[in-house]
Each structure stands twice: as C-alpha cells, then as structure tokens.
Amino acid sequence: MGAMSTKIRQMANSRFSQRPSREFFILIIKLLLVSGLAALTVFNSIAAASTDAVKWTAVSIPAGGEAGKWVLADGSDVQHLTMSADGTLYACGKGLTYTLYRSTDGGVGWSYIGNVQDVIIGIAVSPADASTLYYATTSGVYRSTDGGNSFHLLPAVPGGAGANNIEITSLDVAWFESNIITVGTRDTDSSEFGDVYTLDEANIFSGWTDTNLGNYDVYAVAFSPDYASTPQLIAVVTDETDTFTTSKIGDYGWSAFIGDARLNRDNSGASVAVAASAVIAFPGNFDSNVISGNSVYFVAIDTGAGEGDVYKVNCAVAPGLSTATDLNIGYACGLSNIDITGLAACGDNPTVYLLAGAADSAQTYLSPDGGTSWTRSRKEATGESGTCVLMAPDFINTGLAYTATSGDDSALSISRDNGDTWNQLSLIDTVISAIVDLAPSPGYSQDNTLFMITFGGEHSLWHSPDGGNTWERTLSSNLASVDSMNRVDLPPQYGDDYQTVFIAGESNSQPAVWESSDNGRNYRCRFTRDPATGATIAIDTWAIVDENTLFIGGYNGSHGLVYKTTNSGFF
Questions:
Q1: Which of 99-103, 184-188, 520-524 is predicted least confidently?
Q2: 451's torsion region: left (phi>0), alpha (psi -120 to 50) or beta?
Q3: How far apart are CA 288 and CA 214, in angstroms?
C-alpha cells in the first residue's frame, strides 16, 4: 500500500499540469478499495470482541435424568446401597423407569445399567471379581459378568419362590474356588415357612441346594467374611413368635457346631419377632473359630412395630447357646426400642465402629466402641424411612459414610464426620422449579465456590466448590424446624480458613437466621426479635459485615426498621 501511494504522488507531480490519465484513476480506485477492506476488517474485529465481551456462560445446576447424572430423581426411593471391592456403588432407584444404578465417582453421578426394570430386593457383588454382580427379586436371582451391562436369570430358586406367598428376602455372595450365592426365603402365610438355598457357580447346572433350615422364615442371610477358609453361613430367622440367629459350617447342618442365639427385647426375656427385614454386620477381625474369642457379629431387625434394635451376638460352641445382647441404641435419646433397616461395621471388635439406620426415619446412630455407647446424628439425612447405611473401607480415618433413604425427599446422602451430619449428594427426590437466591464466594475467581437456594415443592440450599460442576445439598426445608429459606450470603472474609454461611428464612412460622461456621455441615438457628418488644422482625433485606455482624431491614406494617447484631443473631 505504501509503494502504491508513492507511485500516485510521482504521477501527480509529473503530470500536474496535464489531464489525469486512465492509469491514475485506476490506482486511486485500488487504493480506496484496499483502505476500505482494511477498515472493514478492523470494524469486524471490534464487533467480534464486543460480542464476546457481553456473552454469558451457562452454569450447571443440579438436574435429573441421564443428562444430569441423576443428581435429581423425582419420585424415587434409594434402596439396597452396595459397594464393590473396587469402590463402585450400586443402588436400586425404586419408582424410576429403570431400577438398577451404578456410580463410579463416589455417588456424585449415576447411570442406569442393564435396562433393569424389576422390583429389586437385594444387590450383591462378587468379592473376587468386581465385574460380577447379582440382584434378586422376590422370585429370582439375576447375574451379570460384565459390570451390569447385561443380566441373565439364574436357575429357578427351589421352594416355589414367586408363588404361593413364598418370596426371596435376602441375597449374598462369597468366593470359595468359585462364586457361591445364597438366598433366604419366607412364606407370608401363617405357620408356613421359608428356607435358605445356595448355588455353586462351578456346578450351576446342578441348581440350588436346599440347606434344610427347618420351620423358620428367613429375613437375612450372610456368608462369614472368612468363608474362603471356614465356610460359615449365618441367618436371622423367626418362627413367627421369636427371632433367632443360626449358623452352619460347610456341609454340616444348622447349629451343628455353633449354638443358636435368641433375641430378647431389652434383654428382659421378652419375645421379639422380626416381620419386615434384618441385616447382619461383621467386625474386621471376625473369626468363625469360636475358641478365638472373635466369633462376634451384629444383627439389626425391623419388626414393623417399633420393637426392633441392634444386637451383639457372641457365638458359643453347640450344644450350648450363643448370646444375643440388645444394645438399646436409642437409650441416650430416651428411646427403648427402634426398628432398624441399615447396619454397617468398620474396624475390629471390641472397638469396632457401628452405624445404624432407622426404619421409620432418616436418622442414623453411631457407636465407636462396639455398641457400648451410641450417639445420633445432629443433622440427619433427608427422607422418611428405610435408612440404609454404608461405611467406606477407610471410615476410621476419613469418617466417610453414605445413607440411602425412601419416602418424600429421599436421597443418597454423604457424611464426612462419622455420620454426625449428612448432605444430599445425588438421586434426590426433588425438582428445581425456581432459583430463589445465589451467593458466589467473595474470592470466586480463586475458589469457584457457589451457594444457591432453590424451590421445587420445598426449599433446598446447595453448595458447589467448583463453579457448578458438582453440587451437594446442605439444608432442606423438609428437615425439622426449617419452614423455608429465601436468602443466602457470605461474609466478605469468606475463604479456606473462614467458612461462615448465613441463611435467612422461617422456622416454626417465625423469621429466623441460620449460621454455619463449617461451610454448611452444621447450622445454628436464631430467631430475629425486636430487642425492646420481643416482636418478630421480618427480614426483607440484609447486609453481612463479618462472621458476627449483620444488618437486617424489614417492614413492621407501619414503617421500616433496621437492626444490627454483633453476635451472629444471638440477640
């Protein structure tokens, strides 16, 4: 372009007094075209930059279905939570189109597998091969050898399961040179009973073996952890009046080596009959050899009538009787008996950690000393019933545990503090119809932290540590004393060492402020009241100064008022 300008000047100077030539005009036109194209290029660049500058980026929020990895699962109940040896989680999503789900990221996201639509009563994974898993219905057992991508029905369970009111109640699998599967059955007719059956996959065409239990209905059956060395099978059974634990070793009959134990309610000799479900849990040092002193395991029962509990069973050599001790896990809370649907153990007896889940609520109970003392969670999981519990293998070091619940607002919940507090992680029975409030961290550019309140039939408070890639629900209006939430905010000092969160809403029909000093695990609720009259103060707006100082503004029906607290709302 510079050479062209020089040429034009030269032509203009040499022919100033002459009529401009045709060449001169062509050069002028070329110069104008080139200049115009350059200007247009600059304009387009500026326009593109301006478009990018005003473009919004969508932030992911909790969602359901495959696209949302089932963080939300409206109408679902989460049941039969199971972990394989490689850490993969499996669960039943009852109430959804597909009912068998798998998570490979610690429960953050799920996918349905095998296109299973059956009503599942149990899930088990081979201890020798994490890709071999089983699920049971009331009438059959299905096996997958490809991680759940496809399933095949195993030979029909003898005894007529699925007909004449006979149904499968429990499922377990062990390894003894091959996978060994066991199921327990019950007959719901009065004075009619079920049995325990086993199947050796090395001789699968031989079918199931009847273990000839006797006149009992079976509510739980489990292989001992040391089955590969001492093949012991343990069952929780009832004769419709009393509940017993019984065991068999190898090909010998039930009670041949180890005496049965009768479960006595409150250790008083009173009968207790399991009628809903039972679960068996073993400490890490369980030994089938009674002489070792470590032949101890734990049983939880759901009677359906509020008379259940957790029992510690000390095995004794037959023909002597083993001893079952009612641990009265609700005693410290003023409860004499609690029906229990979930039980897990971690560590060695006698200091084994025990975690139990209630049948009629989402409450959990923890014992750090083998059942001698118990505490219940301060912030329970959400849901209404059927609380299943699962401890991570490293629970003693990390405090990591999971619950799965049924009923309204059920979910897979996670605890990182030994079951003291629970946050909902996924498969949450809720929807999001509105975003009520949103609070990014003051240092969002460094920590990508977000808090969000949503509504979908109830209010939910969510926390994301990564800009919306993952979320946990830390508070729900379905919890006791939480009516609604409408504001969330963080102090300007919020950060890694300063994790205070404030929420405003209503509790027991009164305006309230919740404060959490641990990023949403625990909350303290404080009502807002006028210091002179004691009247409640509406929270129409507020400003957070620091972890102690808040200003709130509200309208009392006649005029606006502003209040200040310097102790996080205590007064």
A1: 520-524
A2: beta
A3: 22
CB–CB of 346/303 below 8 Å? no
* Paired strand residues for 345: 354
Token pair, residue 25, equals: 């005009």
- Residue partners of 71: CB distance under 8 A and separation at least 6: 62, 63, 64, 108, 109, 425, 426, 427, 428, 471
Q: What is the pLDDT of residues 412-468, one digit of tens each?
A: 999 999 999 999 999 999 999 999 999 999 999 999 999 999 999 999 999 999 999
- DSSP letters, 250-318, are TTSPTTSSB--EE--BTTTTB-----SEEEEE--TT--S-GGGS--EEEEEEE-SSS---EEEEE--BT
Terminal Cα-to-Cα distance of the chain (whole angstroms)? 77
Q: Contact, 451 vs 59, CB < 8 A?
A: no
> With contact defined as beta carbons under 8 Å apart, do 277 and 285 qualify?
no
The whole-number average pLDDT for the span 233-239 is 98
User: For the segment 112-124, what is each residue's pLDDT rounded down to a tens digit?
Assistant: 999 999 999 999 9
Q: How far apart are CA 305 and CA 361, in angstroms?
A: 14
Are residues 351 and 369 in contact, defined by beta-carbon separation less than 8 angstroms? Answer: yes
Burial class from Cβ neighbours inside 10 Å (0-12, 13-18, 19+) for residue 548 reads middle
Which amino acid is it at 350?
P
DSSP assigned state of 537: -
Which residue, among 570, 552, 571, has the nearest Cα to 561 in the 3D structure? 552
Cβ count within 10 A of residue 214: 14
| Spatial distance between the Cα atoms of 472 and 462, rounded to a whole number of angstroms | 6
CB-based burial of residue 427 (10 Å sphere; 0-12 exposed, 13-18 middle, 19+ buried)?
Answer: buried
For 266-309, the pLDDT digits (tens) are 999 999 999 999 999 999 999 999 988 999 999 999 999 999 99
Convert 343-400 into a string of H (helix), E (strand) and C (coil).
Answer: EEEECCCCCCEEEEEECCCCCEEEECCCCCCCEECCECCCCCEEEEEEECCCHHHHCC
Rounded CA-CA distance 129/125 in Å is 8
**Across all residues in the chain, what is the average pLDDT?**
91
Q: What is the pLDDT of residues 57-75, one digit of tens each?
A: 999 999 999 999 999 999 9
Say if CB 123 and CB 135 are below 8 A apart: yes
Q: Which residue, 428, 399, 406, is CA-closest to 521?
A: 399
Sequence-separated (6 or more) residues with CB below 8 Å from residue 390: 81, 82, 83, 344, 401, 402, 403, 404
